[in-house]
Design a protein that fits this description.
Number of domains: 2
Number of helices: 10
Keywords: Cytoplasm
Distance between the termini: 30 Å
CATH superfamily of the largest domain: HUPs
Subcellular location: Cytoplasm
Function: Required for resistance to DNA-damaging agents.
Pfam families: Usp (PF00582)
Strand order of the largest sheet: 3-2-1-4-5-12-9-6-7-8
Protein name: UspA domain protein
Structural class: alpha/beta
């Protein structure tokens, strides 16, 4: 099995902030190859100047390459086992990131997701959100952690559906979370939100008693637990290395509550997509959960997902 290749996009002039420490430590532990990428947006100038827009763009690219090379040199001094290369592209940032990651056969894209002036919904920048929606490669969006360490990793899965595609995505989520937890010496949790969706109907129209409702809920909970245990078995993750958390309630409510209560530093989750006018759009539940989480998040797409960016290239 080949070592991973991790792409770290940086805006022009953006430093490698301490928030990225867990990613760099993970890369070093994994003996991964790291690529630092800066995308310079194309210039659209109509004013007369000493240099043409193309000349200015070329100079900017050269300057950014020098800065990235200097950054790489400094990082290798801090992380001697890291293999780091650099690259500069021009164009729309999220488009060039997706294209470069595909060309370089990257396994993971790590990005600083902090938004100092955003604390509620839409806390992710537009580039991060575009990548989460349109990249087939997993996105690791990093938020600040105490002492820049990851102590607990949660794999958030949906076992309500028995579809093979969903089961395979769940396996990949758990396997990715387990690998990260192992390499960062972190505790691993497997969490799933459930509820008896038909409860309102059963009470109002079927006139079930509280006892009958409770029995149905207990049966549903046991069914979900059995599916979680089967997922652990099929994923190859040792059962004694994962703690199962079965949470009753809406996903976008109970998962963030678990993150807060347990001090979870990182959530690994899937973003099942549906076809739309612009190719694919992220599921509504995943969008709401992302907005409610205030920790680092790794998002995965189902097998077979192809970025619409590549189809338009």
């Amino acid at each position: 099995m080949r070592n991973e290749t991790i792409l770290i996009p940086l805006a022009p002039g953006q430093p490698m902030a301490a928030v990225m420490t867990p990613l760099l430590s993970y890369a070093e532990q994994s003996q991964a190859r790291v690529i630092l990428l800066t995308v310079v947006e194309s210039l659209d100038m109509v004013c007369r100047a000493e240099f043409t827009p193309l000349e200015i763009l070329e100079r900017t690219i050269d300057e950014q390459k020098v800065q990235l090379d200097q950054m790489a040199e400094a990082l290798v001094k801090q992380h001697p086992d890291l293999s780091i290369t650099t690259a500069v592209a021009s164009g729309k940032p999220f488009i060039e990131i997706v294209k470069y990651a595909a060309k370089a056969q990257c396994d993971l894209i790590g990005i600083d997701a902090r938004r100092g002036h955003k604390e509620t919904s839409c806390q992710y920048g537009s580039t991060t959100r575009h990548l989460m929606r349109k990249s087939a490669i997993p996105i690791w969006s990093l938020q600040p952690q105490p002492e820049h360490q990851v102590r607990r990793v949660a794999a958030s899965v949906d076992v309500a559906s028995g579809e093979p595609e969903t089961h395979r995505l769940n396996e990949r989520i758990l396997q990715r979370a387990a690998a990260m937890a192992q390499r960062m010496d972190a505790e691993l949790l497997l969490c799933h939100a459930w509820r008896l969706d038909a409860e309102g109907y059963l009470r109002t129209w079927a006139r079930w008693s509280d006892t009958e409702i409770a029995k149905a809920a207990q049966s549903e909970r046991q069914h979900r637990l059995e599916r979680l245990e089967a997922l652990v078995a099929s994923s190859g993750v040792p059962a004694d290395k994962v703690r199962i958390e079965l949470l009753e309630g809406g996903t976008e409510t109970v998962i963030p509550e678990l993150v807060e209560r347990e001090g979870i530093d990182q959530v690994v989750m899937g973003t099942l997509c549906r076809s739309g006018i612009a190719g694919f759009v992220i599921g509504n539940t995943a969008e709401r959960l992302l907005d409610a989480l205030h920790c680092s998040v790794v998002t995965l797409k189902p097998d077979g997902f192809r970025s619409p960016v590549l189809d338009q290239a």
